Structures are given as structure tokens and as C-alpha cells.
Input
Amino acid sequence: MRIAAEALQPQITEWAKQRPATSTPSALVGQQRALSALQQALSIAGRYAHGFIVTPAGMRTLDVLNEVQNEQHWLHANKFDWVYVANPESAYQPLCVNLPCGKANDFLIKLWEFLQADVSVRGPLKDFILETYTSERVAKYIALIEDRTFDDLPGSELATVIVSHDEHEPFMLCDRVTESTLFGSIRLQSVEGTISSDLHLIEAGAVLKANGGVLAIDAEELLIQPGLWRKLKYILRTSEFDWAQPGDANIAAYYQPEAIPVHIKVLLLGERDIYAQLRELDRDFDNLFPYLADFSSHYSLQKAPLAPYFDYLSYVVREAAVQPLAADAYSALFKFVTRITDFQTELSLDTIAIMQLLREACALATKAQSAEITGEHIHQALGQRDQRDGYIAELSRRSILEGQVYIATEGEVIGQINGLTVITAGGHEFGEPTRITATVHYGDGDIIDIDRKSELSGSIHTKGVMILSAYIANVFARNEAMALSATIVFEQSYHEVDGDSASLAELCCLLSALAEAPIQQGLAITGAVDQFGRVQAIGAVNEKIEGYFELCRIRGLTGHQGVIIPAANLSQLNLGDDVIKAVQANQFHVFAIEHVGQALELLTQSEQKQLYARIEQRLNELQHIDRELPWWRKFIAR
Output
């Protein structure tokens, strides 16, 4: 089936026309599944109700967390200020006191006044403190020191504020995870040669700063630090924070502040692989982190309307701090975001990738003294990117153009076909054709894969060759063995060949050799195949088509060149404008097929029945030929 030019890209022009007059910037567009999971996690208290957030590439985590906390709150949040005060019974074991948010400094002033006052007149001040700071720990401490003075307290310090909160603090993010940033530290000091610690040397980490609220932690940073994950699990299981002894193996001093009770909601941030590994390798993980908030990297137009995506684009434009987009810029931007996802009906939510493109286009707009970013500026930015990344592709194509690598794009040849491959170099993917050849000879029906014999074949490619061998046997050797054997190879391939996307090309090449039917060299083909000849989808379809088109364009388009792809890949087509224009002008063609028979008819310009009849006739003739004995058997028979 020949594909019309209109089907070679998404409906970007129609989408651009749907732009609303106003939009509300939002980073949470298309994230209903993840937001629902977070809402469930934030509605539950307890030690075993934490969550894991899957963060896709390009998501700006802080923006997302800030917007989430504006819409959702932990229903059981209960924050306090925390203060360590001198323990009249031990200089090395200060006591912790919790206070209402923002009241720590006021409490210390009143505590100072309380200790300065004469014991006989402390009653009214004591009552004021207990009524103002309604805390069991405050009451206990006041009872402990109500008849004591400064002289009765050890050391030279009365108290230190460990954590002080505002009323409406956002989620805390700990993305630079170390022992001290996550759990805090107790530093040491040397006074007249004596190593010791004191109240002012206690420094809280993220766990205590977020105590009573929500703490988000970068999972990868957490796990690469030895011992931190185990310590965090212990805190979550026990709901209590114990300080590690200060110092190290060489210098240490005894100083043990009282443990602080922990009431916290932890959200780990990381990739899906980390989540899978934690579930598999850590038996405590499922108990502690039962909630998965799976943020998506795509916005599917099959599940949601287009309008909210304009809110997302408005957010990206705001964060990128670029000039406004002109009307024609949206169609170019839609083409870019669908190309990232590899599907015509899915739009990318890769914020950083879109910001990078917009900033590059903005620089071009500024240079051109334009007040807006136009579609032309976006096309120029993408062209610059292709120019930067295209050196390896250019070298590879030059070797074909100079004849060092032989690829025919005209004429017809028996047992030779242009397959399509994709190459990844430095993060940049490009497609290029590869010549596949097949020969047949009298034998016992086996198919020899030269790449496999020379150990240049990966396991998936080997599987593909075995599948096409099974198809040929199923069609031509159901009742008796074939009298023909074949060899097949990727010509001028000096690296490992893997993947099954060339199995359709290999099968067509073998059938061409068996039927002695020439293949049109202007057509390249890609696709996987099953044992029944059905053609299956492959990856990187756009890169493969564009790679072959570029070679044909440089050599000169004849109108007989094109690419054959699986029909299952139609929803992924998003080709460059030059390819689409060539298809519109009938200078280049894209065909979509569902069965190997359709491919054969396009490649050989013959009907499948005729080809298979020729193969069967040839096999029947060979079955009745007396096989000549080898010379050594003739010698023995004498």
C-alpha cells in the first residue's frame, strides 16, 4: 500500500489551529495517574505509607513538587520547632524540646528570663510558658529546672535551635544526598587540647528539617552512599532519630543528644530501573514504600484532549524565559515533540529538551531582531542540531557515495536487496542502507548465516534467521526436504549484526534467489517477520527512511525509489519536510505492508503465486536429479 504524503507526519497544522486564547501554565499536565497515587499516599499516616516517584528524563523535579504541594497536602502533617536544651543532669546528653512552628526563639527568650528570675518569683513566668508552649516536653523540662539556676547547668550554653519552621513550608527536596545533608552532624571542637562537642555544634539534616512534613529524596544519590539507605530505613521503621557519635576512627568524643521522634512522609525520586531493583533486592522496600507515583514522559491524545497540552507548553515557555511563540511556531513545535515520542498521537513531556530547543530558537529570533519565535526559527534550530550531530552520518554516507561501500539504488539484481539499519553514535541515531545478498546451491535445505558462522551475529539476529528459515520450510518443505541450500550475509559488515528488523529483507532476498527473480534496487525494506510471513513492527522507522532518502537524494531521485515498511509502524511516521515534499511530487515512495507476499510483489514486480510456483518447480526438478556420487565413493565401489 502506497502511503500518501499527508500520512507521513502527525496532524500538526490542525493541532496548531486549536491553540486557546489563554492558557494556565502547569507542569502536571497528563500526570493524572501519578497525582492520584500521590493523593493516596498523602492521605495516609504511619510508618508504612511512603512513596516512590518515577521521574522520567527531562522532568524538572522541583517544579513538579512545588506545584503538587500547592494542590495536595499531607493530611497528617504536624510540624514543630525543635530545640536542644542543656541537661542539668548530664553535660553530654542534651534534651530535646518541641515547640509550635516559629516559636523557638521566643521560647528561648522566656527560658532565659525564667532562669534569671529568682526561684521564689518564677510562678507567673512558669505559668505563662506552660500556657503558651503547650508541649509535654516543655512541661517536663520546666519541672526539671524550676528550682535551678544557670550555675546548676553544665557547660556554657543553655540551648540551640535545631529546626525552625514557617507555617506553610513546601515539600523539602534533598537532591544532594550525603550523611550530613540527610541526617545532620555533630561537629567537634578543641578547647585547650580537649576534644569535645557542644549544643551549637549540632546541625540538623533534611530528615529533621522536614520532620512533621514531606521529604523528597533523590534515590540514586541515596543508594550510592554506603549505609545511608539502611539508616533511613531504620528511622522510618522506628520513627525515631538517633544521633551518631561525633568524630571518626581517629578522633572521637562522647556526646549523645536525646533522640528526636520522627513523623515524616518520604518520597523517593528515581528512575524505573531503581524502583525495580529495590523491589527485587530489598525485602523491606515494599513494606515501607507501597505507593508508586509513575510520572509519564508522554501525553497521549488518544486518552486526553489537546487543550491541556497548551497549558504545559505555556509552562515550558515561562520557565525557558524566551520570547512568545508565533502562530506558525506551534506546528513546528508539535512536530518536534511527537518526533521525541516516536508516535503520531503522543506528545513529549520532556521539559528540558523542549526548553533547549526554544532557547536555541530564541537566540536565532533575537539575532534576526524578531519579537517572536517563528516556525522558521525552530526549523533553523533543528537544522543546526542536525549539522552538529551529523558528522558520523556524513562520513558513513560518503563511503557509499565514493563506492567504498557498494549500495545500488537503481536497476535490478537477483538475490540482492537493500536492508535498512540504524546506527547510534554519541547519542545521535541515523539510518543507512546495508546490502544483503543470498545465493542458493544444491544441498539438503539448510540456510547458512555467514554472519553467525563468523561470530558477527547477535542472538536476536540469529533468532530472526531461524524464524525465516522456519517460514521457508513451512511453505516449501512440508512433505519432503528441499534439495536446495542457501547462504545469506550482510555484505561489507565488519561489526556485530543484531536485531530482527532485517529478517524481512533477508527472507525476500532468499526467495528472490530461490525463484531467480530480480529485486528492484531502488527499493529498500525494513521489518521483522514471523513464521507465518506476517510482517511485524520495528524501531527507528523515521531514521531509516530518512537515511535512505538522503542517499537517493544526493545521487538523484528517479521516481522509482522508495522504502517498504511494516504497516504496524504507520502510527510512528514523522518524516522530515524534504521527504514529504518528494513523496508529494512522486519522486520517492513509502509503502506499508502486512505480509511478506506484498513485499515480494513490490520488490520483484511479480505476483507471489508466480514466484512460489517457480520455486516449487525448481525444487521438484532437483528432487528427480540423480545425485552424482563423490569421487571417493566411486573409488570404493570398484
